[in-house]
Write a structure and sequence with these properties.
Elements: H1 12-61, E1 75-78, E2 84-87, H2 91-100, E3 107-111, E4 119-121, H3 130-142, H4 145-149, E5 156-159, E6 164-165, E7 180-181, E8 186-188, E9 194-199, E10 202-206, H5 208-214, E11 217-226, H6 228-239, H7 243-248, E12 255-260
Antiparallel strand pairs: 1-2, 2-4, 3-4, 3-5, 5-8, 6-7, 9-10, 9-11, 11-12
């Protein structure tokens, strides 16, 4: 309950007049406060509308997420002659590639070194040339453990799919991603180096000649001492693209940037 204070020196009419004046001032203040509140509310509404427009503009400006192809779950590249080549990232994907994605006319690449990926050239009813085979061999060697060991080259053999089997010799055991090879093996001796490039904002990586033929600009990697995360940042600054996608194409172990084109 509000307390009313009366001035005993004034009459009732005079006290009433005082409070009447005070009430008029209070009403004016209240009306002013209401007007100020209304203006603030109008400004807030205007800001909210602007914010909505900005969000809509940003959403429209966002590039649609690119749908990934089936082969992007593996290591992959298109050779300089247009052949799709896929390789394992680990024992599990090695197994999957040979068992599910290798056809009779394809060619399979591997090394005698443990920790090597299988790479497969997809023939698609076309004759596979020595040039594409050399590129597949380079990818096989570069993504093997030889990169981490600092080897400059590595022997890579190639066979037909029917030469691979999961049947181990008596007393031996084949783990995940491992296969026995039957019959004759043929060898290629590639240098270890990898290129990473960009084409229409899509990162590609693999053997140098293949990336050179399929990219707008690219860099060449050799073994070195820089960590994958450091190299990936440098590559992004040089050619653009996504760090996550760049990282997928960098061999395990230290690297260095040899040249840019």
């Amino acid at each position: 309950m509000a307390r009313i204070t009366l001035d005993i020196k004034k009459s009732i009419e005079q006290n009433a007049a005082v409070y009447f004046e005070k009430s008029k001032k209070s009403r004016k203040k209240l009306e002013g406060a209401k007007k100020a509140l209304k203006k603030i509310q109008e400004k807030l509404n205007l800001l909210n509308e602007k914010k909505k427009k900005i969000v809509l503009t940003e959403k429209r400006a966002e590039k649609p997420v690119r749908k990934k192809e089936w082969y992007e779950k593996f290591r992959w590249f298109f050779s300089s002659e247009g052949f799709l080549c896929i390789g394992g990232r680990d024992a599990t994907t090695n197994d999957i590639i040979i068992k599910k994605y290798t056809d009779k006319e394809d060619i399979v690449f591997h090394t005698d070194m443990a920790g090597s990926p299988f790479f497969v050239i997809k023939a698609n009813n076309k004759k596979i040339s020595p040039k594409t085979m050399e590129e597949a061999a380079q990818a096989t060697a570069s993504y093997s453990r030889a990169w981490r060991l600092g080897l400059s080259s590595l022997d890579v053999f190639y066979v037909k799919p029917e030469q691979l089997t999961k049947e181990a010799r008596s007393g031996e055991y084949l783990g995940k991603g491992a296969f026995m090879v039957k019959g004759k093996t043929n060898y290629i001796y590639p240098m270890l180096e990898i290129a990473i490039g960009i084409k229409e904002n899509r990162i590609i990586g693999g053997p140098v000649n293949a990336v050179k033929a399929n990219s707008d600009k690219f860099i060449v990697l050799k073994q070195g001492k820089e960590k994958t995360s450091e190299i990936a940042k440098k590559i992004k600054n040089m050619i653009g693209g996504s760090i996550d996608e760049i990282t997928l194409f960098i061999p395990a172990g230290g690297s260095r940037i040899q040249k840019t084109k």
